[in-house]
Write a structure and sequence with these properties.
Blueprint: H1 10-19, H2 21-45, H3 52-82, H4 89-96, H5 102-134, H6 140-165, H7 173-199, H8 216-223, E1 225-236, E2 242-255, H9 257-280, H10 295-321, H11 331-354, H12 364-382, E3 401-407, E4 413-417, H13 420-435, H14 437-455, E5 469-477, E6 482-491, H15 501-509, H16 512-520, E7 542-553, E8 559-567, H17 569-584, E9 598-600, E10 603-611, E11 632-637, H18 646-654, E12 661-663
Antiparallel strand pairs: 1-2, 3-4, 3-5, 5-6, 7-8, 7-10, 9-12, 10-11
Helix pairs in contact: 1-5, 2-3, 2-5, 3-5, 3-6, 5-6, 5-9, 6-7, 6-9, 7-10, 10-11, 11-12, 13-15, 16-17, 17-18
Length: about 675
């Protein structure tokens, strides 16, 4: 009689189902509440008049966004239930004493935890589809996408949870490993960024993480969405008003489906790796925090490193870094805090592995290695061995740069720069700040000392007495690199030195394109995609109207009344052209050091549209606003009007608008 190898044991499978049936029942009830029951209630009582496509869109959106969240939290529960015997020595020895092979046990327990989840999801989706069908909104494609949105993340998160279970013999350690490893890469990236921010002058610090793909939950939060083609319907009412609405006319699309498929494939790989780990796992490791021998050093030094980055930086901030800017740091303080925190993490991990407090004598060599590695990391950062601080991209290699200067004189600007000449001025300003690093840090330190003394009520003299200083925040974002100088100081006495930060920044401020953007983009702007863009570069720019308002005050400072009026499209165009003439003639404040700006108290808005070249079918494409015409996008400018802008003032006065001015900073 031929023997055969089996990877499934029916008895073990049904034994698992009997043991954790309350978890399965609760999970099934959760999905029944989330999908068919809520759909039935909402459609019957709130959205009965909805178009079928809108019903499908709303249901698929709910499914897509709840699928990965539920999978993340429940996967570890099913993994702990199916493989809980690995944390009980008696249960482990009993099962491993059976004639069933390790592969059979692993596959059976794996399926025992996965099948109830997938079966519950299938039942909930089919019932939800039946509810939609009863309202004339059944769509087989949408039903399939709902199943994928639920099952694919479940496969990944459950496989990952099982993988974590095979590494530990402590039931409570499994969820800790599971949660930590899901966010480990992004967390370490964040900690390294903040650590580098203590050392590196000009480090942006708070930029968005780039390794979100290694944190599946974060990645799915950013990518999963539901999109559909739509056409705009404009209904003109009897009173002349227009109601704008969108009617979906295209097939629904689940954005991020490619990432769901990728993570599901990775989950299958993790399931196979979990089998390899399970086969090599000794039965006597039950009860250990880390059950696999080769993983223990990784756990120990990983905990030490992460503790050093997290706790060490907290200690440094509390004792040394509260009044220090990036690039201005205490090297000794940093190394001491990092080494102390790293040793705490190392010995804590050693205690967990050996289940004993007596680890200091046997673990001193590893502790010394951890401390040495952290000191070397601090020294590497301190001396900037990779040349980050001094590296300024060559203007010829930069396609675009977004620059911003926010100062306390009121002469602030933000601009998107693309022409070669202005990019050269950006690079010059950047190099000047880098070359002036030591004085910038010293000036900032003196200023922070002054602020600290002032807050404590002590007598303090302002730094740099008699020196005309313009201080503010300078940031520049190149195509691939970001820099931010959160405290930058310009000295008026150095304006004649073309290599000084004061001269370089002033030259950048007076570049024609930058000057126009600093005037036009002074207020709150719509359409983030073209924020800071030179309005002359927007395709087919047309002004459609505007709005003016101003509070009138008496010479004695008493409020008189408000005046306001709408601008026609022609008037808005005239104002824009007058601003262009003022900029071309240099009738804009030409000094960043001018702190007596005479600025109009008015609120002036110019409404414009331009040709929309956005590809809305692309992944993660923005959503069009409902009030925008097909093929065009809207934008609102809020220009700042100053006394120097004589052409603009004359144009507004010809319209019957008289401006009031007030000296001072805004």
């Amino acid at each position: 009689m031929r023997s055969r190898t089996s990877f499934f044991n029916r008895t073990v499978f049904w034994s698992d189902q009997r043991h954790f049936w309350p978890l399965t029942a609760g999970y099934a009830l959760l999905w029944l509440l989330l999908l068919p029951l809520t759909r039935l209630t909402v459609l019957d009582h709130q959205l009965a008049g909805m178009h079928p496509s809108e019903m499908l869109h709303e249901t698929l959106e709910l499914t897509a966004h709840s699928g990965y969240w539920v999978a993340f939290f429940t996967a570890i529960l099913f993994a702990m239930a199916a493989f809980s015997y690995l944390t009980n020595p008696r249960a482990t020895n009993g099962l491993h004493a059976l004639s069933a092979r390790r592969e059979t046990l692993y596959a059976t327990h794996f399926l025992a935890g996965l099948c109830p989840q997938l079966a519950s999801q299938l039942l909930a989706v089919l019932l939800a589809a039946a509810v939609l069908a009863s309202h004339g909104a059944f769509d087989a494609g949408v039903t399939g996408m709902m199943l994928l949105a639920l099952m694919l993340p479940t496969i990944f998160f459950y496989s990952f949870a099982v993988f974590c279970m095979t590494f530990t013999g402590q039931i409570l350690a499994a969820p800790v490993f599971y949660a930590a490893l899901n966010f480990l890469v992004v967390g370490v990236e964040f900690l390294l960024r903040t650590f580098a921010g203590s050392f590196l002058y000009g480090w942006p610090g708070t930029s968005a993480p780039t390794l979100t793909a290694f944190s599946p939950l974060m990645k799915l939060m950013l990518t999963i969405d539901v999109d559909a083609g739509a056409e705009m319907a404009r209904t003109e009412m009897p009173d002349g008003s227009v109601i704008v609405d969108y009617i979906q006319n295209g097939p629904l699309r689940l954005q991020g489906l490619d990432w769901l498929l990728l993570y599901a494939l990775i989950g299958l790989v993790l399931a196979a790796l979990g089998l390899l780990v399970y086969r090599s796992r000794p039965s006597e490791a039950t009860g250990s925090t880390v059950a696999i021998g080769w993983a223990k050093p990784i756990f120990k030094y990983g905990v030490a490193f992460c503790t050093a980055l997290a706790l060490g930086q907290l200690l440094y901030y509390l004792f040394f870094g509260q009044y220090r800017a990036s690039g201005d740091y205490s090297l000794a303080g940093t190394l001491a805090c990092m080494a102390a925190a790293g040793l705490i993490g190392y010995f804590l991990a050693e205690m967990l592995l050996k289940k004993s407090f007596h680890v200091f004598r046997s673990g001193w060599m590893g502790a010394a290695a951890v401390a040495l590695a952290l000191v070397l990391l601090g020294v590497v950062m301190s001396f900037d061995l990779w040349g980050y601080e001094s590296r300024v991209p060559d203007a010829a290699q930069v396609r675009r740069a977004d620059v911003q200067w926010s100062s306390y004189t009121g002469n602030s600007f933000s601009a998107r720069v693309e022409d070669a000449e202005t990019l050269r001025l950006v690079a010059n300003a950047h190099r000047a700040l880098v070359a002036d690093k030591q004085r910038q840090l010293a000036t900032d330190r003196n200023y922070l000392d002054y602020v600290a003394q002032y807050e404590l009520g002590e007598d303090a003299s302002e730094p740099n007495p008699g020196e005309h200083v313009c201080d503010g925040y300078f940031s520049v974002s190149y195509t691939l690199k970001n820099r931010r100088y959160s405290s930058a100081y310009l000295f008026a006495s150095e304006l004649d030195d073309p290599a000084s930060p004061a001269a370089a920044m002033t030259a950048l401020y007076n570049a024609p394109g930058v000057k126009l953007q600093s005037v036009m983009d002074y207020g709150v702007m719509h359409d983030y995609d073209t924020w800071g863009a030179d309005p002359r570069t927007l395709p087919e720019l047309r002004f459609t109207g505007g709005y003016f308002s101003q509070s009138v005050w008496s010479d004695g400072g008493a409020y008189v009344h408000d005046q306001e009026r709408d601008l026609t499209a022609a008037e808005a165009q005239d104002v824009y052209e007058a601003i262009l003439r003022d900029v071309a003639a240099g009738r804009i404040s030409d000094s960043l050091f001018r702190d007596d700006i005479s600025q109009s108290r008015c609120r002036l808005e110019l409404y414009a549209t331009y040709r929309d070249d956005t590809d809305y079918s692309a992944p993660n494409a923005p959503t069009r606003n409902a009030d925008e015409d097909p093929g065009r996008r809207t934008r609102t400018y809020m220009p700042r009007i100053t006394k120097q802008m004589t052409e603009t003032i004359a144009t507004l006065e010809a319209m019957g608008i008289e401006l009031g001015f007030q000296d001072g900073n805004f």
